[in-house]
Write a structure and sequence with these properties.
The protein is α/β, with parallel strands linked by helices. It contains twelve helices and 14 strands. Helix 1 packs across helix 10.
């Protein structure tokens, strides 16, 4: 028998502007999440204290004590830390399903999330939520950066994509600067290893029962602001130079290489890959790849943080980056 009202949870490893993490939590709680697991990658992140009044939110500080409890030491690679945290949350959750996402990713449902999950046959172990990535169409509004529209992946192949969308397509994956795989709701209590995009069966010869989640989209804000996007790409470029971390996917490597070749062209690179002019918008519309949901987390934010302001302005985010991530931002000029 299928679950009639399945519960679900979200896990994220976070090191982002505090208001973004609050919006992430508030939005998913407003959709019906039973639990939100937050793993703070920086032990001294002051945002930890923002969630003490929300019993649905489990805060884990990723300090040495925590890593000693779940691992021999703090994993050097960020992706490994994410997976370790998600796997711990999978063992801890009391919910029927667990979604592993980043703080800049928000589920957009056409119908209630629990209703979608309830339709999954018990043989299904994971539901993949397809992604749509935010693009810019002109001047970025300063007041609140969690706005659309969004671009879905192009599945026509690289040659067709290059012909349709231009040479910048080679520095994307199916037209997206981030990932095109989406993220997965994973059924709890199964013999599975949580990963970044989809779980993995424990046995080498086992297969994963994975299907697409009908009626759900993952809205990915890959770069809240141009500086935020540049910071994340610079972090990747620094890892490449220092041979540190997991090798990036080919399109991310191409982006990082372009940044290293021309650091002064960072904003031009952003605009090439992230800003859509009228001609590109028309192509996306013709290919049914443009979506513009009326996404706005403001009401959810106010519901769960009534005494706080949703300050996700370009000015505030960029000031946070320059204060908290100056060492990374200075890498290209050092």
């Amino acid at each position: 028998m299928r679950d009639q009202t399945p519960s679900w949870a979200v896990v994220a490893t976070v090191d982002e502007p505090p208001a973004l993490v609050q919006a992430f939590v508030a939005w998913h709680l407003s959709l019906g999440a039973k639990e939100v697991f937050l793993y703070f990658d920086r032990p001294d992140d002051p945002a930890q204290s923002l969630f003490v009044d929300l019993p649905q939110v489990s805060v884990t500080v990723c300090d040495d004590g925590n890593w000693q409890a779940v691992s021999k030491s703090r994993p050097h690679r960020h992706q490994v830390r994410q997976m370790r945290n998600a796997r711990q949350a999978y063992q801890r959750t009391g919910s029927d399903w667990l979604l592993h996402a980043d703080a800049d990713e928000f589920v957009w449902p056409d119908r209630p999330v629990a209703e979608v999950l309830a339709q999954a046959d018990l043989s299904i172990e994971a539901l993949m939520v397809p992604v749509a990535e935010r693009i810019f169409t002109g001047d970025l509004p300063d007041e609140m950066v969690l706005t659309g529209p969004f671009r879905r992946p192009f599945f026509g192949g690289p040659k067709a994509g290059r012909k349709r969308y231009g040479p910048g397509f080679d520095m994307t994956h199916r037209g997206l600067t981030g990932h095109s795989l989406g993220k997965s709701f994973v059924r709890a209590g199964r013999d599975l290893n949580m990963s970044i995009h989809r779980p993995r069966p424990q046995g080498k010869d086992e297969t994963l029962a994975l299907v697409r989640a009908p009626g759900l989209t993952l809205l990915h804000f890959d770069g809240l602001t141009p500086l935020h996007w540049t910071y994340k790409l610079t972090r990747m470029a620094e890892a490449l130079v220092n041979r540190d971390g997991m090798p990036p996917s080919p399109h991310r490597r191409a982006q990082a290489d372009a940044l290293l070749i021309d650091p002064d062209g960072a904003m031009a690179l952003h605009d090439l890959l992230k800003v859509a002019d009228d001609a590109l918008i028309a192509k996306l519309v013709a290919d049914d790849l443009l979506v513009a949901p009326p996404f706005d987390p403001s009401a959810a934010f106010k519901s769960y943080f009534p005494d706080a302001d949703l300050d996700l302005s370009v000015t505030t985010i960029d000031a946070w980056l320059r204060h908290e991530k100056a060492q990374v931002l200075d890498f290209l000029t050092s």
